Recover the amino acids of this structure.
């Protein structure tokens, strides 16, 4: 599996602009093939410990079945439409991609 994490900093970081970006992402990106897990939302404002990165407004987390699904996603019309609809308000985006195990580690509960 492949984890794809995107952090958006916005020119207009009003609640309306944040909601518009999240709504666009959920509507266009969440239902796409090859996605195991999807999540998108605003930064959690009250988590502001010294280790928290506070320099973004919206986060996107997608787990793909594999690298090929990620690569197909990059060229899908819905993904390109999402970028086109929203890029004017992005002051910065940061993308982090990581390899994930195909099976989650087992956990023992005591």
């Amino acid at each position: 599996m492949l984890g794809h994490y995107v952090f958006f900093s916005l020119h207009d970081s009003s609640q309306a602009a944040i909601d518009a970006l999240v709504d666009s992402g959920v509507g266009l990106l969440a239902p796409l093939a090859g996605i195991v897990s999807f999540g998108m939302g605003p930064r959690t404002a009250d988590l502001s410990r010294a280790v928290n990165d506070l320099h973004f407004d919206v986060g996107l987390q997608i787990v793909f079945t594999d690298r090929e699904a990620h690569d197909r996603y990059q060229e899908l019309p819905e993904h390109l439409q999402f970028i086109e609809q929203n890029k004017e308000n992005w002051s910065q985006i940061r993308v982090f991609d990581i390899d994930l195990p195909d099976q989650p580690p087992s956990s023992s509960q005591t």
Observations:
- The first helix runs from residue 15 to 29.
